[in-house]
Write a structure and sequence with these properties.
Helix 2 (about 90-115) runs antiparallel to helix 3. It contains three helices and six strands. With about 160 residues, the chain is an alpha+beta fold. Helix content is about 45%, strand content about 25%. The mean pLDDT is about 90.
């Protein structure tokens, strides 16, 4: 299991790749950096001839919402869609730095507590710093991942 959240799964659609591409295009708006209105479609991103990259459109801010990358090709009975959900690179870099600093603080606090047992509170504080960062990231990512996967499966696997 990767340290930072990463989810991979497969969707088998009973339609051809062209239909999958059209369904995706119908549900994905282009990314607009400075839009005044929230997009009306469920996803924002790009759809190519054999792949796609999108993010769910939310009515609230969630930096931990997944970036969805996928590819599709003809499968046994329709189209096989390989999907990967991960954090955006800047968010992953920030959380990697946060967790590295927190882990370093846990080590330093543990060394200090080994020398002076009265400093055990610093270990607990450092562990809490690590736990809150990791917990928020994991919970918020997995909640949005579950919702996004459900939307994608409805869009691609079910009949229109």
């Amino acid at each position: 299991m990767p340290f930072l959240p990463d989810k991979r799964f497969v969707i088998d659609a009973g339609v051809g790749p062209d239909e999958v591409r059209e369904r995706l295009r119908a549900a994905v708006e282009p990314v607009r950096r400075f839009a005044l209105r929230r997009p009306t479609l469920p996803f924002a991103g790009t759809v190519g001839p054999k792949s796609f990259e999108l993010r769910p459109v939310l009515g609230y801010a969630n930096s931990f919402a997944p970036l969805v990358q996928g590819s599709y090709a003809t499968g046994v009975s329709g189209t096989r869609i390989d999907v990967r959900m991960r954090l955006l690179r800047p968010v992953a870099a920030f959380m990697g730095a946060w967790l590295a600093v927190a882990a370093f603080l846990v080590v330093l606090a543990s060394i200090a507590a080994a020398r002076d047992p009265l400093r055990l509170g610093f270990v607990i504080l450092a562990l809490a710093f690590f736990g809150v960062g990791y917990g928020c990231m994991a919970v918020l990512f997995w909640l949005e991942t579950r919702r996004t996967r459900t939307k994608l499966e409805r869009l691609l696997a079910d009949a229109p």
